[in-house]
Every structure is written in C-alpha cells, then in structure tokens.
Amino acid sequence: MSNIDPNLLPGPKESPVLPEAERQRRPVFNPLGRVEQINPNETKIADVRRHPIGLFFIYLQIMLALGLAFFFIFYFMPSLTSSLGINDNTGQSVAVLIALVASLFGVIYLVLATKIYQTSQLIITDDNVTQIIQVGLFHRKVSEVSMENIEDVTASQRGILQTFFNYGRLHIETAGEQNNYNFIYCPNPNAYAKAIQDARVNFLKTYGG
User: In b/e form, how buried is each residue of 113-148, taking b as 16+ CB within 10 angstroms?
Assistant: First the structure.
C-alpha cells in the first residue's frame, strides 16, 4: 500500500479554496470603471501609493533639462541672431520667448508626470491583490491575483536612499501563467509584504476547509 498523498502527485487538480471563495464574491459593476471600488464582501487592508521620492527624481530631471535648455538659448541665441542680421534687442526678445515656451512645456510635463506617477497603486484586500500601473497618459494596466495564487512575497531595499527614506520594491510571485507583480517605489515594503502574507494565511484558513 502506498502512503503517498494524492495531492502531492503531479498533474492538474481542482483547488478546494478558490471555488468557495469565488462563490461568495458578488460582482461589482461601476460604469465609471473605478478599480478602487472593491467587492462588498471584501475588506480593504491597504491602498499603497508610490513613495513621493520618485517625484523628486522626476522633478530633478525636468529641472536639469530646463536649465540646459536655458543655457543653450541664452548662450547661443545672441550669436545666432547676430549672424542673421537681427539687432540685439530683438534677439533677446526671441530668446526670452523661446525660454517662456520651454518653461510652459516643462510645467505641463511636470503636471502630467505627477498625475501618472500618483495614479499607480496596489490595492490589498483579504481576498486578492490588485495592481494598477499607469504607464502613460493613455496607457493603464490593471492586474488582479487571488490570495490563493500568491506563492511568495519579497520586499527589497537597496542603497542608502531606500534604507533612509524607507522605500523599495515589492515583488509578488504568482502561481501558474499569471505575471509576477513588481511595485517599485513602494513605501515601507516590509510592512506591506507582511500584510499580504498574513492576508494569504487567513484566506487559506477561511476557505481551505
């Protein structure tokens, strides 16, 4: 007689957890498409937004780009206008106009970049994890994984900045063909990793029988 547990044998097997969990879930329909509205039977554990330090790096890049643009505008424009036979006053006016236009585009880019950065989020409930990544202004990616299909959660912090400001990367490894989740600039990643692990344990206890 073999004492091998049939659940340990290779091959597909029906999960005893997910069907019961799905049976108790009621669908949510929202014409506005707000992902933040969760199922009535779910309890929201956390709504994770990216750490503000990521915006600092974005702003720094934009300021450096504008500073470089102003340098070329006010350093090379007088020589260019003089070579075209334009007087100095007109050349200065053209340089100021171009600088104002560059500043306007810089401000618009700052506003859009801030909106895109702040829209990305990770919603953790007692049933699943939903990741919303705003890739661009018109490009949004939404993924959801059940607690049952989460195999491992890893929090990583590298370098002085990540350690000092307490942010890092939250990596969620999923089972099957689902994509793994990587949430960068995650504030306090160790705490959220622990929250997901605890929620998964409670989920399996509730529906695992």
Answer: beebbeebbbbbbbbbbbbbbbeeeeeeeeebbbbb
